[in-house]
Amino acid sequence: xxMRAIMILLGLVAAAAPASAEGAGKSAHDFTFxxxxxxxLPLSDFxxxxxxxxxxxxxxxxxxxYDGLQAVWERYRDxxxxxxxxxxxxxxxxxxxxxxEIKRFCEVNFNIDFPMTSKVPVKGADAHPFxxxxxxxxxxxxxxxxxxxKYLIGPEGELVAWFSTRTEPTSREVAxxxxxxxxxxxxxxx
Length: 190
Fold this sequence. Notes:
Helix content is about 35%, strand content about 15%. It has helices at about 1-15, 65-75, 100-110, 130-140, 170-185, and strands spanning about 30-35, 40, 50-55, 80-85, 150-155, 160-165. The protein has a four-stranded mixed β-sheet with strand order 4-3-5-6, with helices on both faces. Strands 1-2 form a two-stranded antiparallel ribbon. The longest helix is centred in the C-terminal third of the chain and has 16 residues, at about 170-185. It is globular and about 45 Å long.
């Protein structure tokens, strides 16, 4: 009976471990995207800031969330928030364009001026390494199920919260989480 209890306990510990040993001990600052304009976009450039990473798409029923993302960016950027748009064509082929087309669409239709990455997969075996790491941090329940899934990264690169597609960027829930992380920066004198 005692051996069975030990085996169950070991199984629970294994289930709680990150999805990949490769992601163990890492932070968001260990990952680099490519900027939508080209060139590396290391998340380490945002060390000491709060980052909201959002997988986006131009032709989705939730595309109007770009307005909310821009509003959040404008409200909090001077206090240390970075909004990072990550275009992805993973859900319903709703981001079929090139980087230039995506950038133009966002600027013309939503006046987006927050940073964006090149288009990448955010789910499955081909997901960008950041998204694989995030899945290991939050588990299956916290992985993107559709466009406009949001991850909130703390100033030290830790994943502190996630919000589903249906959670508006301007919701009270998101504002409370952002404010809590910005308060950490302010307390640290940043």
